[in-house]
Amino acid sequence: MTSPLLPAAALLLLPGASLAQADLPSTSEIRAILEATQEALTAPDPVPGATPEAAPDPAPAPADPAPADPLPADPAPAEPEPAAPEAGEDTTAQQPLPTLEEIEAARYEGGPLPDGRSALTVKVQVLLDRAGISPGVVDGWRGGMSESALAAFERSRDLPVDGILDAAVWQALGGDAADPIMMRYTLRDVDFEDLNPDLPSDYADLAALSSIPHRRITERVAEAFHMDEDFLIAMNPGVSFASGDTIWVASTGGAVATPVTRITVDKSTSRLSAYDASGVLVVDYPVTIGSPDTPSPSGTVTVTAVAPLPTYHYNPDNFVQGENMSALTLPPGPNGPVGSMWIDLSEPSYGLHGTPEPDSLFSRQSHGCVRLTNWDVEELSRLVSEGTVVEFQG
């Protein structure tokens, strides 16, 4: 349901589009409202989450909608799989979690990002996100997505491109003069609406539901603030994540508003870049593309429509999930196979869409479509229009 505290979202339907859409605010639109109501962190407590100051009343986190109308064609997204670590990460390393004070005080002192997890990597990930260069999830780990984001940032600033943090990159990010990296957010009753901790994994069981919402409040909040769920929990030790709790979240900046006229999807770097009419880079995101068996399109296509909170049409002729040999229609929701947003392309059955597993972008392959985090594809959906050019390269 939609909270009465939130303004109704305008229905986003491109001219000539045939996709029906839910008339509800997107996750990233609501997140922008949430951020605007929060008090920025200026002097973090040594222990995050311990008796924090009361924050202003926020707007609620996104509620899950009634099902949207079916898409006109059967997209072929990846079958949901267990979440995987970012490529190159050492998740077995027992490194101390950076504290809030360490994150805010982090400075570049030479060399690349530290191996494993560090306060400096948290800070760099947030600064990249603020610059429109998505690192994927903010988790503090040095890995493939962070390095690809650094390379994209270097390209956008005409710096030597190697994906390695150096003094020039740090200065261009404004690292020494950065606003606080973390901020306070207070959970409210409405944030807990429509959670379903018992979501099944089988498509036939999912098809029997009215929506495919978030499972946990921590999953919902992590997505709203571009964070890895485990990192969010770890940054708030001793917090039960109950209504009324004030927690620490990443402050990743405001929404981008510049329209884009051209998009490139680089298969060699697994990055999507979007440019304005003057050829200036507006945003750059990590993506998952198709496998050799189910490749993404080649050449140039165009955007034909945008569908927030789409239903998903499972077709066993494209791939088989479990023992499901009949076509199924799955309801909408952020944990559905195509996430919270579908950007339809002129190549039949292909699109740019979200994912219920944002931390798996660099460790999974799609079934031909281009998969982004829910928050990145929601942002992109507000920047495109019918006819926006999408070029597949590499």
TrEMBL record:
<dbReference type="GO" id="GO:0016740">
    <property type="term" value="F:transferase activity"/>
</dbReference>
<protein>
    <submittedName>
        <fullName>Lipoprotein-anchoring transpeptidase ErfK/SrfK</fullName>
    </submittedName>
</protein>
<dbReference type="InterPro" id="IPR005490">
    <property type="entry name" value="LD_TPept_cat_dom"/>
</dbReference>
<dbReference type="InterPro" id="IPR050979">
    <property type="entry name" value="LD-transpeptidase"/>
</dbReference>
<comment type="pathway">
    <text>Cell wall biogenesis; peptidoglycan biosynthesis.</text>
</comment>
<dbReference type="GO" id="GO:0018104">
    <property type="term" value="P:peptidoglycan-protein cross-linking"/>
</dbReference>
<dbReference type="Pfam" id="PF03734">
    <property type="entry name" value="YkuD"/>
</dbReference>
<dbReference type="InterPro" id="IPR036366">
    <property type="entry name" value="PGBDSf"/>
</dbReference>
<keyword id="KW-0573">Peptidoglycan synthesis</keyword>
<dbReference type="InterPro" id="IPR038063">
    <property type="entry name" value="Transpep_catalytic_dom"/>
</dbReference>
<dbReference type="GO" id="GO:0005576">
    <property type="term" value="C:extracellular region"/>
</dbReference>
<keyword id="KW-0449">Lipoprotein</keyword>
<feature type="compositionally biased region" description="Low complexity">
    <location>
        <begin position="84"/>
        <end position="93"/>
    </location>
</feature>
<dbReference type="GO" id="GO:0071972">
    <property type="term" value="F:peptidoglycan L,D-transpeptidase activity"/>
</dbReference>
<dbReference type="InterPro" id="IPR036365">
    <property type="entry name" value="PGBD-like_sf"/>
</dbReference>
<keyword id="KW-0961">Cell wall biogenesis/degradation</keyword>
<dbReference type="InterPro" id="IPR002477">
    <property type="entry name" value="Peptidoglycan-bd-like"/>
</dbReference>
<dbReference type="GO" id="GO:0008360">
    <property type="term" value="P:regulation of cell shape"/>
</dbReference>
<keyword id="KW-0133">Cell shape</keyword>
<feature type="active site" description="Nucleophile">
    <location>
        <position position="369"/>
    </location>
</feature>
<dbReference type="Pfam" id="PF01471">
    <property type="entry name" value="PG_binding_1"/>
</dbReference>
<keyword id="KW-0808">Transferase</keyword>
<feature type="domain" description="L,D-TPase catalytic">
    <location>
        <begin position="261"/>
        <end position="393"/>
    </location>
</feature>
<feature type="region of interest" description="Disordered">
    <location>
        <begin position="35"/>
        <end position="95"/>
    </location>
</feature>
<feature type="active site" description="Proton donor/acceptor">
    <location>
        <position position="353"/>
    </location>
</feature>
<keyword id="KW-0732">Signal</keyword>
<comment type="similarity">
    <text>Belongs to the YkuD family.</text>
</comment>
<feature type="compositionally biased region" description="Pro residues">
    <location>
        <begin position="45"/>
        <end position="83"/>
    </location>
</feature>
<dbReference type="GO" id="GO:0071555">
    <property type="term" value="P:cell wall organization"/>
</dbReference>
<feature type="signal peptide">
    <location>
        <begin position="1"/>
        <end position="22"/>
    </location>
</feature>
